[in-house]
Amino acid sequence: MMQQYIEIKAANPDSLLFYRMGDFYELFFEDAEVASRALGIALTKRGKHQGEDIPMCGVPVHSADDYLQKLIALGHRVAVCEQLEDPAEARKRGYKAVVRRDVVRLVTPGTVTEEKLLDPAQANYLMALGRVRGEEAMALAWIDISTGTFRVAATTPERLLADILRVDPRELIVAEPVYRDEALRPVFDTLGRTANPQPPSFFDSASAVARLSRFYGVATLDGFGRFSRAELSAIAGAVAYVEKTQVRERPPLAPPERDEEGTSLFIDPSTRANLELTRTLSGAREGSLLKAIDRTVTGAGGRLLAERLMSPLTDPKAIAGRLDSVSFLVEESVLREQLREHLKGVPDMARALSRLALNRGGPRDLGALAGGLNAAFAVAGLLEGRDLPDEIARARAQLAALPQALAAHLERALADDLPLLKRDGGFVRSGYEAELDEMRGLRDESRRVIAAMERDLVEETGIRSLKIRHNNVLGYYIEVTAGNAHLLTGTEAAKARFIHRQTMANAMRFTTTELAELESKIANAAERALAIELSVFDRLVGEAVSASEAIRAAAAALAVLDVSSALAVLAESEAYCRPVVDDSLDFSIRGGRHPVVEQALRRQLGEPFVANDCDLSPKEGEKTGAIWLLTGPNMGGKSTFLRQNALIAILAQMGSFVPAEKARIGVIDRLFSRVGASDDLARGRSTFMVEMVETAAILNQAGERSLVILDEIGRGTATFDGLSIAWAAVEYLHEKNRCRALFATHFHELTALTEKLPRLANVTMRVKEFEGEVIFLHEVARGAADRSYGVQVARLAGLPAAVVERAREVLHRLEESETGGKAERLVDDLPLFSAAARQEPARGRQDDRLRQALDALNPDEMTPREALEALYRLKTLDAGG
After folding, report:
1. What pLDDT score does 787 carry?
2. Is 487 part of a structural domain of the chain?
3. Residue 880 is labelled as binding a ligand
4. Cα distance between residue 657 and residue 580, in whole Å
5. Residue 374 known to bind ligand
6. Are 244 and 377 contained in the same domain?
């Protein structure tokens, strides 16, 4: 057995081997040590290998999915090795014969299909990177085998990471030589365990056409479109990996569909992270934009919403089509609620279909198809006869195209209460299959059936004492008294029918062909009943898989309706407006709000969000957008204002209403956001270096259709260095990039640039000072801040009072003397904390006098006037009097 294990493990060195032994999957050697740590299960030992104990651990087969879920979440890959024969069959080959086993499936993060292992609202993409030797061209292909989605897109080394993160795959497979390419090493380092090297033969573009034709069962790929060599390499790599991991099964993948370059808004990796689109910087979904806008009621709808958020469109016509759907459902509130009621009960048809096609599904997956099809027909009926926007009309047509015969067949065949596993039986409805009903009757009511046959024989023969009995030797038999035996043997016909079995002293025993057949049926009824049910199951699965294209289209249509109605609910509940998205270079937001912060303020503090305008549209006489130079204090709301405008742009171009009173946005082709500070110490990059790398990427890539958001460029270095870099960056954005931009800074000297750069405007976060306190109004207004209020913010943060006072004093002297950075004079004039140190003893004596005066007071014996006079005396003491 261990020899067999070692041979199978050698063929799957990069996976943990789940080796089936009876009711357990066992792991041995290093696999056992890894799994025991990852799963928190006991590590034992079994036998010896080369004189050493063999480490072992195991998990029960019936709960294997729970353990797989943990391992996959940690990035492990698992080879599932099953017993391919009954142990009794193995014993027939000899005492030492080993049960035949082999790997039936590789479970990897990008190829899971089990319901337990998948997030209903998150796609589970496997991505392949294709590159042709000697060419710069590269391509990405990605598959979700749980739904059949298959897409491909060209990419370049410069935008590779951004394109990968746009899709956010669970697993990226790469040819081993490409994985070792030093030029691409930073990309793979960023992805970590997500990147997985594979044999180069998987990605061979020369044999790709033959591989794909064989996989899809077609003679030519012409019907799928024309693909470049790099695209064919990526597509072939993805299909080869699916074939490798699924072994003998083939998922119902849609033909690869190309994502044309330039059809989606380019968002670079740091921008995606900074804006927290689907996850916060800590990795949580709570607090992300997706969580704030998600009102979907189905898993497929949640996945589509996330996909649209990650890949906003750049075609105004396509965007308008999505917005039309949302507008229609905002206005048709009754229809919208009816739709959502139907959608709430829609199972995940695409994932159920995939499990069935891969021979991993069960009766409940067939039930999911039946429920989904019925819901689809009900939704199509709701939309019938209405004047619908194009997107909803297409969805209705896809629903109407579903095969009604399949839905009727599933409804007729499946029982109301379905078991999880097909091997449990009981999922076929009574009355569907006559033979099955008979077998169930025999299995469950054998006594009643025998009694009925006995009654029939009594009436036929006239022998009232005739009995049908059973023993372990004869099985079922007919028994009559010796005096009545002649009635069963008196004629040739009777002799032919009643076959003599045994003569007793006072009785004779017979059987008949009918009784022998009935006995056989009763003995095999349970087994036969299950066999019939499994045959029905296979027949229904075959029928469903043959309609996979129509089912996938209907599932996609239901997801579209879910997203459109969810965005309509969001727009109505949060008072969002429909944006105008066109081919201009406008960017005009009136009363814009941050969608995540607004909800958090209302939920946690019950406070309203302060809305602000933003207008980066070209000024009169200008052909390109404006740049706003934003100054103001920390805690004033600069970062929130910067991010909210980027998020409004993303929401608009994904086809959603936006949190504003009014919005007009000329299509943005690239979005860049540099907000916040971070380092990359693993690659030897300080916070300032990361800042400069990201700024360089923006300045090198932004064009006039881009939206650029920059916050505090240059703050990570010396004052004059930082000011110089920020100054030059503003000029470059204005003169070279000519893009729409928001540039926040504490370098107030930059405000003078508005006199030189006509498209640059000064705006500031308003504050109000009241009795020495600073009140942040969170309002954006025209003009420039004259200071940063940093010391006031430091006090609010809880710095020691002595530090705050010292900082105020140093700041005052710096502003008064304008030392220009020559701090040596201040060192002499203001020794560190010397003034505070000199004051400490005096303060101590003053405190002692206050304490003595307080101790001398007896409030119970004082009149109101005496108490008031005592208070004045204490106040005089506190002032140093």
Report:
1. 64
2. yes
3. no
4. 10
5. no
6. no
What is the number of domains present in the chain? 7
CA angle 734, 701, 162 (to 5 degrees): 140
Cβ partners under 8 Å of residue 639, min gap 6: 675, 676, 711, 744
Residue 621 shares a structural domain with residue 766:
yes
Q: What is the Cα–Cα distance from 760 to 224, expressed in whole angstroms?
A: 49
Is 635 marked as binding a ligand? yes
Same domain as 818, residue 755: no
Residue 840's pLDDT band, with cuts at 50, 70 and 90, is very low
Q: How far apart are CA 40 and CA 43, in angstroms?
A: 9
632 labelled binding-site residue: yes
Q: Of the residues 793, 817, 850, which one is the last residue of a structural domain?
A: 793
Tell me what the pLDDT averaged over the chain comes to. 87
Question: What's the distance, Cα to Cα, between the start and end of the chain in Å?
Answer: 95
User: Is there a single domain that holds both residue 130 and residue 217?
Assistant: yes
506 is in an annotated binding site: no
The residue to which tokens 């689109």 are assigned: 277
In this structure, how many other beta carbons lie within 10 angstroms of the beta carbon of residue 794? Answer: 16
pLDDT tens, 579-619? 999 999 999 999 999 999 999 999 888 889 999 999 999 98
The sheet that has 499-503: what strands, in order across it? 467-471, 475-481, 507-511, 499-503
- Reported pTM: 0.82
C-alpha 289/C-alpha 362 separation (Å) is 36
Residue 630 sits in the same domain as residue 729? yes
45: its two tokens: 């030992």
Q: Based on the domain organization, do 593 and 494 belong to the same domain?
A: no
- Rounded (5°) CA angle 404-410-413: 135
CATH number, position 496 = 1.10.1420.10
Q: Is 90 exceeded by the pLDDT of residue 1? A: no
583 near 274, Cβ under 8 Å? Answer: no
Q: Does 197 appear as a known binding residue?
A: no
pLDDT bracket for residue 845 (50, 70, 90): low
The answer as to whether 542 is a domain residue is no
Residue 188 CA to residue 180 CA, distance in Å, equals: 9
Residue range(s) defining the domain that contains residue 197? 115-261
Q: What is the pLDDT of residues 33-50, one digit of tens each?
A: 999 999 999 999 888 888
